[in-house]
Amino acid sequence: MECFEKPIMVTKSFLPPMEEYTEKIGEIWASAWLTNNGKFHNEFEKGLKKRLGVNEASLFVNGHLALETAIKTLKIKGEIITTPFTFASTTHAIINRGLEPVFCDIEEGTFNIDPEKIENLITEKTSAILPVHVFGNPCNVKKIQEIAKRYNLKVIYDAAHAFGVKVNDVGIGKFGDISMFSMHATKVFHSIEGGVLTYSNDKYKSEIELLKNFGISGPESVELTGINAKMNEFQAAMGIVNLNYIDEQIDKRKLITNKYRSLLSKIKGIKYLEDMEGVQHNYSYFPVLIDKEEYGLDRDELHEKLKEYNVFTRKYFYPLCTDFKCYRNYNDLYKLPVARYVADRVLTLPIYSDLELKDVEHICEIIMCAKV
């Protein structure tokens, strides 16, 4: 079997036509306005509100600082119930705000936090739930909201992977009190780096804007203890240009996803997620679970075998957050059988908009033959 001549990476950043971006850069050069709510920042914010179908939005230099700001804006204290099957940023944001993460197990069918297991973790210290729309698959937002209402809890969604996702034609950013989207270069939609908070309560707007700019409200006035998390004009310009291509990007990813599903359905021991009813997906990742008993190789063995053919996958998310060195004191506090099962078997295969279908076929052929 032939090896790919050039590496096939697990992801590849989309770049729009250079001339479209450089035209925007020319305007930045002419104005010499590089940051602090410039023309492109404000234009991009309006464009995102329309594209995401949300009432309010605030831009950030990255998603992590946006998430920390969401926690501070809602004045959350004590404990936050969240998932261990996520990127480290989710847990870091909780700890950095001086709060205690409480880890809830996940659903095997979605990889998202299991709402049936949330209530047993609620204590008098619980003030919020921070679920993650893992790989862009939406959480059970209805059930989570019912729990939050019953116990008077805030809900912040880590929607880092979920740009453009809709549930029954409602933008995913409209659920919960605040949602955070990442616009990092590896995401379906990006502004080089970047983050955005979306929310329906317009009362949050003024405080969020203060918090991300040192709490400054005027030339001689600082109202809050804030940070520097403003998005600059170069990021905003990239975001504006990329908004013109996001639908095309998602359509291409859907074709790739369907090709993977068609071919991998013929291989025993390889499981993948299906589209969810009533959901408009963005096909941000293509995760599979490897069952060694049926397939013949375990996840790590397949990961290494694919490298031999110049195909680079990722064990995403492995290890669980509770297994990171900085969080090992949480390791034995929670029973997380499903999360551990998934983390030990998950592998994300390459997916990006210009990955050719013939390359997907070859990757699947390698997977088919690797176990022999």
Strand-residue fraction?
15-25%
**Head-to-tail CA distance between termini:** 12 Å
Q: Can you give the mean pLDDT?
A: 97
Helix residue percentage: 25-40%
Give the low-confidence spans. none
Biggest sheet: strand arrangement: 1-9-8-5-4-2-3
Give structural notes.
With 372 residues, the chain is an alpha/beta fold. It is built from 12 helices and 15 strands. A 7-stranded mixed sheet has the order 1-9-8-5-4-2-3, sandwiched between helices. It has a 3-stranded antiparallel sheet with strand order 7-6-13, with no helix packed on it. Strands 12-14-15 form a 3-stranded antiparallel sheet. Helix 5 links the parallel strand 4 and strand 5. The model has no long low-confidence stretch (mean pLDDT 97).
In short:
With 372 residues, the protein is α/β, with parallel strands linked by helices.
Set down the secondary structure blueprint.
Blueprint: H1 18-31, H2 39-52, E1 56-60, H3 63-73, E2 79-82, H4 88-96, E3 100-103, E4 126-130, H5 141-151, E5 154-158, E6 166-167, E7 170-171, E8 178-182, E9 195-199, H6 204-211, E10 216-218, E11 221-222, H7 233-243, H8 246-264, E12 270-272, E13 279-280, E14 286-290, H9 292-295, H10 299-308, H11 337-343, E15 346-349, H12 357-370
Parallel strand pairs: 2-3, 2-4, 4-5, 5-8
Antiparallel strand pairs: 1-9, 6-7, 6-13, 8-9, 10-11, 12-14, 14-15
Helix pairs in contact: 1-7, 2-7, 3-4, 8-12
Task: Provide tags for this entry.
7-stranded mixed beta sheet, 3-stranded antiparallel beta sheet, about 375 residues, single chain, alpha/beta
